[in-house]
Design brief:
Layout lengths: L1 H12 L1 H17 L5 H6 L6 H10 L6 H13 L12 H36 L4 H15 L2 H15 L19 H7 L3 H38 L2 H9 L3 H29 L1 H8 L4 H10 L3 H29 L6
Length: 332
Amino acid sequence: MAELRRFVIRRLITFIPTLIGVTFIVFIIAAVVPANPALLWAGGQKANPQVVKELIKEYHLNDNILVQYYYIMKGLLTNEMVSPVTHDYVWEDLKEVFPVTLQLTIIAFVFVLALGIPLGIVSALKKDTWIDTVVRIFALIGVSTPIFWLAYLLIYLFFTKLHWITLSGTPTPPYSITGIPLIDSLLKLDFRTFAEVIHRYWLPGFVLGFAGTGVVARIVRNSFLDAYSADFTDYALARGLSKWRIYRHVFRNALVPVVTVLGLMFGGLLAGAPITETIFGLPGLGNYMYQSIQSYDYLALTGSVFFVAIIYITANLIVDILYAWIDPRVRY
């Protein structure tokens, strides 16, 4: 336990520098763009000069980059950062849009688990057969297919031709427990609302998780084959254990690297939502970031990246802890 505790402390030490580095890079990229943010926020060329001056003063636009970044981070950490475009507190906007993205991510992650792991196992069990070839081709297609192309193709099929989906509205129940309709409807056993949420989100969730499905299938296949060729498998065969008992032990050992990939993938799905949400008209965190870029609201964009980075790093930390707990060699 002492080694695990030291390992966790080492990982926690890197938490804050990572957050600072990610947000600072995003801020620098946005701040060096040759434009007058205050003029854009005030309405363009016809903006009131007095309003422009007040915006420059309020957001320290005449100060150097480090000072501007300091005030942005201070505003985010104290919940005093107000978007010059929406005129709302950034954290309040993020709390409003995040449940949409989390629902989308959960559904995408379910697709990744439900398709990627079984396909990887079947591919490993049927190594070098036509089934293995099909799964490997599917994995390659999943990694190579652009999200926007797949999204428009499936919209044309399921919305325009088959009318199986809707592209408007986001189901919201009259009650709130966690603030996430998908989870709240299950807790309340409100299967009607749950079905409405699934009906709205299943296709964008599939599009978002499609690439991850191929990645997981390939990793599960390779991990399963590596574990199956290990010494403990030969020992189990020598003892006369049945195939299914051997497969169970192999599967447990093969899941060690898969757990790491799945944890990181969950954070990656959150970060990869902007394209999917924009195409499917979902008012989530990704769409919020896209709108922030369009309006040059780099304060809201920095806050969004900060929020996503916290989730991603936390997921990474949890995965590292689980990995160190499963495999003690990682602690050293």
